[in-house]
Every structure is written in C-alpha cells, then in structure tokens.
Amino acid sequence: MAYDASISGPYSGRPAFDQYLYVRRDQTQARRSSYAYEVRARNPERRTQTYALSNFPLAVNVGGQIFEHEHNLDFRGGQEYITLATGSTGWFDHNSAGELTIVIDTWHGPAGVFGSADPAPLYFVTDTIKPETPTGLSATRVSDSQQTLNVTVPWGAVKMVWQRSTDDGAWQTLATVTASGTYTDKSTQANRKYTYRVAASNGGGQGPWSSTATIYTSPAAPTGVSAARTAADDIRVDASGRPAWATSFNIRDGGALVASGVSLPWTHVDPNPADTHTYTVQGVVSGIAGAWSSPSNTVQLISPPSPPQSLSPNGAVAPSDESVTLSWVHSPVDSSPQSAYELQYRAPGGAWTVLTGTTAQARAVTLPVGAVEWQVRTKGAHPDWSPWSATASFTVIDRPGVAVVQPADTWDASTLTAVWTWFQAQGRPQSAWRVELLDATGTVVESRTGSGATATLQLATRLTEGAWTVRAQAATGEVWSAWGVEAFTVAFTPPVEPVLTGVWDESQGGVQITVSGEQFGVAVLDEGAWYAEVGV
C-alpha cells in the first residue's frame, strides 16, 4: 500500500522502537478529499520483549481532526511492527489551484518502560488533485487566418493546454499557457476544417479534455464547372473538383444568382431558350461562402448551329485516281451534336451536286480532273439548318509520273548522280522529291528528301561492284507520284598496264620517273574492292 505522507519518532524509553504514522488520500469528491491513516509501532531489529503493555492511549491529528485510540504494545513474538490504529478522516477542501495544505501529527504514551513517542508534525503540502473539465468551448471565425476560442476555465486550472485537429487529422498541441478562458489561433488557412479541444492542468497533472468545437474556413473555388443541355431542354450544372468541406453551393447564370444552398449536380429548370447560359459556382460551409469558380462552357438551348468550320481539303490538290474525303467540324451553339448534314460541290460556275447524311462529319467522293468548290451546312437539335459554310476550293489533278534516267543498266563509277524526269498532265511543277538507294538485298542504305523542282541528286554512298537499285518519287502539293525504279549493276573496267619512263636529272643527281596511263576508265583497288577513278 502506498502512502502519500508519513512521520516517525522513537519511544523515549526504548529508542530501538519507533512509532510511525502513514497518511494517504482515500477519496476525492467535488474539489475535496478524505484521508486514511495507519499508526504502527515498529521493531526494526525484531527484538523480543518478555512482557506486554496493555491499552496504552495514542492520538492522531490529520488537518486538525483528532482521533484517539488504545492498543496493546506486545513485542514478545519479535514481530517487525504492530498496527496500533487505523481510520479515515472527514472531508478537506482543496483551494482553487487544487492544492491542500494540512498538518499530520501523532503521539503515544506514556507506555510503561517504553515511555512516550511523539514524532515531529509534518505540514502535508504536496497533495494536489487534477483540475475539472473545461466547459462551454466555442470557436468564432475572425478570418481565414485567425480564429478566437472561448471556454469556461474549470476549478483547479493553473494552465490550459490547447489542441487542434486539421481536416480530421491527428491532434496537435497549439499552446500550453496560463489559465485563461480565451485563446486566439492565428495559424489557420482557407479551405480547411479545424477542430479544437482544451484541458486544464496543475501540479496534480492534466484534467480531462473538454468537448470539441469545430470551425471551417472559406471553401476553395470549385473547378471543372460544366453545363450540359438535358433531353428536357433544362441545363445540368456540375463541377468535377469540389471543395473538400463545402456542404452546399451557390450558382450564378452570368451575373444573376439562380440557386443558393443547393447540391451538385444541379439542374437549371426552364432556362430562357433565347439566352446563352454560362455558369459559375461557389462553395458554402457553415454560412461561409468561398471564391467563385471560373465560368463553365456556354449553352444555348435549341438553337441552329453556326456554319461548319475547318473544311478540308481547301486550297490544295487531290489525285484523280482515288476518292477525295471532304471533312468539316460541326459548330453547335446549344452544345447539341450534329444530326444531319447537306453537302454540295461543283466546278466553279457549274451546277451543284448535293449529298446528304446524318451524324458523320466527312464524305468520300470521286471527282473528275479540274477545279472544285464545295460547302456544307449542318443541323443539331434545332430543326433549322445552320448557314452554309464558307466555300472551300481545291483542284483534282492527274497523278504525276517520275522516271529514273540515270544510271542505266550498268554503271562503272564508285559514285552515283541520280537523274529523273518529271511529268504532270496538267503541267503542275514538282514541289518535293524523295530518292532512295537499295543494295542487292533490297535494304535501303541511303534515303534523301527535299523540296523544289530539282531532278538531280549526288548520292553520298560509295558504290561497290554488284547489283543496286535507285528509286525516285516526286510530288506536286500533296499528290505524290509512284516510285520510279531503276536496277543497275556496278562493274569497274580494270586499268591498263601503266608506262614508266625514267630520265636522268643531273641537277638532282637522280632519275625522274613518270607513270602514265589512260585518262579515263581506270580503276583502283581499295581495301579489297575496285573503285572507278577519273584523271590518272
């Protein structure tokens, strides 16, 4: 058993024997405590007495409450101690800091040969009980960055421990300060949920936590706000990014507030079909409205579309040997998809050929050689057509042709200049070209491209004897020719035997040797391969 305080003193006639008083807190109730006590006569050396003393008086004083007892003093068995008295006090009130200062004292005897025991009194000043629970905690919003907390300071409080949880996270201590009923939190931010609690403390420890108080700061602006027409010609408004703690939303159509305190998605019923509708959304929590979102897309109900855009082809050429795909982009005003189209084309100044369809935004047509102009119009949910698009124009031409004229079937040089011819029936110029060199396995070993009307290209690859292929392709606008292909064989003519001429040069004191041979068609062996050389 643990005791909160004790005093002791020897018997005057038998100093080897002591009297002890132990006192501990027994109960605590409504700011007051009661104490239990026990008085012992101790025999630390376990001496054996040959006699016993009967019913000698003793008294206990705990905080001014006096308790009298009688007990035998019998150590004939050599026991370590004898319990002389036990008991409990009445109630003692603690002060406003939870502290209680009392005095404890005891005396025994005189008891025959033992004499008297009278330990020195002790001022028992360390008994402090924990504070009570703070009550009435409230949080008042000053701004997004500052909140004021108020609470009723409980009995026994010396200090206050303030804690905060952010967005339902772990508790964190903000401050431990001298007991006060007000605390200001200046470290908050927008778009957060803050929950607070407080406990009082003193020398006896920390008391219970208060109930919690929660406050919200301004919600963030919603993001990804969208508006879409419904089948009933209403408009459904939603936001893909909603503030974490917003419990409702305000909605504006243009500058006019059309809904407040609503949930998302929200439907704007019977909006004016003659107006355009663009929405912004604002989050609200605990009566605090956040920032307005960026505007949504714009919706107009049951309105004819605008003229189609991005017509293709336009200003280009197309080949006559394949169909031409005419494409466009539907341009709704009311966000409804394309439901029909009407397309017309003609030679300039001629009669229109009209084609119709539904939801496709492209149409393949076969056209003769010549200039073509065309336009298109579309429908959405509204029964009326859009205006005709701007007129697009292009020219259908015969596919050009390319023929490789150099090299011929055989070639006797190590470098090659490819030459090709260009033909286009309508006389359109060459605007781009491609040339490729392939080895005997069909692998492309060099590929070159360029723009303009050139028909000659010096290839960089050094040729060896054997089979090769060169091919060329050219275009006018976006219309390319087929490949012009020429297969050829590289075979070098071996050089003639050189002629050496020697002439004595007296000034040099030696023979000047001259090597001569044919000027053209000679060959040189380089690392096991023959290459043609010119001008030996």
TrEMBL record:
It comes from the Bacteria. Keywords: Carbohydrate metabolism, Glycosidase, Hydrolase, Polysaccharide degradation. This is Fibronectin type III domain-containing protein. GO terms for biological process: polysaccharide catabolic process. GO terms for molecular function: hydrolase activity, acting on glycosyl bonds. Residues 133-220, 304-400 form the Fibronectin type-III domain. CDD domains: FN3 (cd00063).
